[in-house]
Amino acid sequence: MHSLIIFASGAGTNAAAIIAHFKNNGKAKVSLIVSNKADAGVLEIAKREEIPFLIVDKKTYGETLLIEQMNDFKPSLIVLAGFLWKIPEKIIHAFPGKIINIHPALLPGYGGKGMYGHNVHHAVINAKEAESGITIHYVNEAYDEGNIILQARCRVEQNDGADELASRIHKLEHFYYPRAIEFLLG
Known about the structure:
This protein has helices at 13-25, 41-48, 64-71, 89-94, 117-126, 162-185, and strands at residues 2-7, 28-35, 53-55, 77-80, 99-103, 131-138, 148-155. By secondary structure, the protein is an alpha/beta fold. The protein has one domain (2-185): Formyl transferase, N-terminal domain (Rossmann fold).
């Protein structure tokens, strides 16, 4: 069975969708959750699902000890699911081709530092885009510039605010992210 490590900073809705998907099909399991916030909702999911978790801080993030702890779980993939810190080069080099991310817009547009959540949705709406969507991509040393694995699209309706667009984006994320992970695992 494949081992997944999820990095998340927030409520953990994508993490929950991934956990549920693989609980149902048995092809992989989430072995560890890593968060940079001690009060992140994803940690409640980890406790409920009895998944070990680590809380990282700026001082220890990217250090050899974290890499060793992650290696203990022999991850097939490291999945960023709403993780708001840039992945250090040390981690990228320790797990080449094994780190993926989901972005709530169609890259290469609306990516980069600070472009997450409602910041992205506001930018898309303010630019009067006809569509938005999600991009699942590999992680490299630059924000949102890794090779694209999958994109899925949705319309931006004329009266959309960030919440309405986010709702449609979340549906795409929860459907496609687990399936893209399953595809990558083979």
